[in-house]
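Question: I have long wanted to understand how a fold can be written as tokens. Here is the record:
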Amino acid sequence: MAKLFFRYAAMNSGKSTQLLQIANNYESMGKTVALFTSAMDDRYGFGKITSRLNLQRDARTFSPELNFLAEDFGQTACILIDEAQFITPEQVHQLHELAHTRNIPVICFGLRTDFRGEPFPGSGMLLALADEIEEIKTICECGKKATMHIRIDADGRRVKEGPQVEIGGNARYRAVCARCFYRL
């Protein structure tokens, strides 16, 4: 039976790289995968899943209006979702139902919390409904395991206020351990 998986981590942990490797594994066996990424994240181009290792694939985009249950996945062997923190709680329910009623594994990769330490709504629901949850590990500059994020401004100073979503990579965010999150 297929499952809904949530693989979460701090930034720079290799989430997109792992997603692209899984896609490659399925496709090397002649199987079809459905790749999705957030329509909000166009840092590397619209509808692109890009790893920091410069691997890139085209993907369909999702926005809050997408109903995954209304999609025709045909002979799709696996659904892979990057930037899963941006899916809605309702979409998490759809993906959970899809995995269990259509027998298609759904693997979601994303952040657990924002720069304030608050959960993203989609991530919170993934933590509640996912059949399997896995943390992908990376390290803070101090050497401890990074589990949090801080947002920084153009001068490298920490930003503690602002909207939950502000797209940006290494120039806007840093992965940190909990100790550095509270100290910085």
Summary: Helices lie at 15-28, 89-102, 121-129, 178-183. Residues 15-28 form the longest helix (14 residues). The chain has four helices and eleven strands. The radius of gyration is 16 Å.
